Amino acid sequence: MNFKELLLGTPEEQRAQRVVNRLSGRIKLAPSQREDLGRSKKITRKLFLRRTGLAGASLLVSGLGINLALPRSKPKEADVQAYYPELDSEVKNKGTFQTQNLGRNIDWYNFTDARFDQDAAAKVYSFFELISATQSRGRLITNQGHEIDYTIAAHKTWPLKIFIVPEAAREPSWVDKKDNEGAYTLLADQKQINLTVVKLVNPLRSSSSISKFFKTPEEWINHGAIVGAAQATFFSLAPSSKDQQDVQEAFCNSIAFAVYARSADFDYQKYSKFTAGFDMQLSSDRAQMIRFDEEAYGRIPKFPAIIRK
Fold this sequence. Notes:
Elements: H1 3-8, H2 11-23, H3 31-63, H4 78-83, E1 93-98, E2 105-110, E3 115-116, H5 118-132, E4 137-141, E5 147-154, E6 160-166, E7 183-188, E8 193-200, H6 217-231, E9 234-237, H7 241-263, H8 268-276, E10 279-281, E11 286-288, H9 294-298, E12 307-308
């Protein structure tokens, strides 16, 4: 019996208390109800005696100058309170890692039983920083024929916070879509902070169209973590804000999938087949996933999993 059950009662005792509360004031009871009430009173008697004993013990130790304070829930971490107050879970692991190229300090908070490998995360973020420094250019052509010339640069090196949360966790207030994609990133220019949430979502329950390519929750989770790293590192430059948003989504999702596929030992033929079969949803159009050529794909390092269940 844990401390909570000691105070509030076991599930059986709590049920018995509800029965007593419901039936005690009635004048007429069916035979089965009388039997249930008598049995429930015997069960709740144990809870009453236990609570009385605890109260007596509390008075006794108080007289001896001993503080028998009931355990309180831990206060929320400052970053959680500031950026994700909707989160009710307690932090199970946390840490900070630094990227190799831009020297970003990235704080992470893990609210799950899964293992977050900060060394693997640092390698992925550092690799994306190298690419962002090249100021690469490209052209995105949507399914409706709209052509967007873009440049990919490095995002401002503001503080970054990562939250790894259970699937049932409430969405942060800054998320404007609730479709269980598995990862969200906020590039908050006004607050000068970047926030990433990785949700341990089963791909079979995700509404994201790309989730069908992943067979296990671990595969889907790691892809989401890589997407978050890309969103927090790259910044797209395009003719309009709408174009910029579309390029940001398309490029980050495309390079994240390439890194995931390379790390999962997809050969180039298998990688090409996957990218050819997936259209990305943009703000008001769709576009095929950006496919990197065989030489560029072969130069992507193979990274260990960032999150392991």
